[in-house]
Amino acid sequence: MSSDEETAEDRLVRAAAAQLYAGPPAEFVATRTALVKSAKAEGEKQAAAAIGALRRPSVAAWALNQVVHRDEPIIDELADLGARLRQATSALDAAGLTSLRGARDAALASLVTTASDVAAAEGHTLTAAGEAEVRDTGIAALADEAAETALRSGTLTRALSYSGFGEVDLSEATATTSTGVVLTSLRGGRRRKATVEEDADAVEQGLGDVEDVGPETLDADETEDIDDQDIDDQDIDDEEAVDDEEAVEDDEGEDADDGAAALAEAAAAQEHEHRLAQAQSALEQATTEVGRHRAAVEAARNRSDATRQRVHKLETQLESARAEDAVALEKLTEAVSAGKRAESDLVLARQTLTELTDS
User: Fold this and answer.
1) 81-122, pLDDT tens digit by residue?
2) 190 part of a folded domain
3) Fewer CB within 10 Å of terminal CB in the chain, N or C?
4) Its pTM surpasses 0.85
5) Rounded to 5 degrees, what angle do the CA atoms 69, 187, 133 make?
6) What is the DSSP-derived secondary structure letter of residue 58?
């Protein structure tokens, strides 16, 4: 859907997602609550519901979203490298895959470093488990174009992972509309700065409208809706508090997560090596088959040359035989003519002899 075809509801939800997923995680709930109220004040109840359903991202997902919103070069580099890797895999180009391995490792390391630096700049620290999730997301984006699109959307809610085969599971991995369309801050590639500013202006305008709206300007239904939303927002705040407590417990289990991440990475690497070996084997078989066909073509060419030589020799012999036949025919003709002359002379001699005898 182009920007010209977007409805007011679409634009509100997209602008809200752009602000929410580009902002600090600590302000996510409060900002979402304000945006919901803003949408309701504009009479966009469906947009308000969609905004209220936007999920708070994990720390790793938040860091990756910041990398995207800051237009860090690593995102485009990862996309270009992913396209080359997928093309080499599709073509069973084992040599190509091997040559890209160094670039792959460097890109993943750069993604982790960039995400860590961006998080640090915002006052947050990525744990070892968080860095592993960032790397896993990078691996998924390299392997699966849909995962790359999810990463580039800038609205990740959780990290992605790739098992080494098949498609990446993207369920509830990004902010989406009620129809499942991914809300992305990137339109036609990298997001233009002007578009970001326009979305931010739209959200700020909406918030300003909320401040100007008094209780006397809302009807009973709208007031009740806002009260209900306040209750929902309080529930969300309570849920976030529980999430924070669970985060502490998660920190205590980071060592276990590190081990699991290492095992997952090892499994992915093993699967990659297996697929690489399969590609190498297929390439060798194809090379052998091509060599066999080339040998057959060369043998056929040699047989053709020998046949041409024999045909040429036979044509030469035939031409010689025809020449000899012509000479023999000419001699035969001369002999027949000589025989006829001799026969005529014989008849004449007999006549002369008869005449002499009679006289």
Assistant:
1) 999 999 999 998 999 999 999 999 999 999 999 999 999 999
2) yes
3) C
4) no
5) 45
6) P
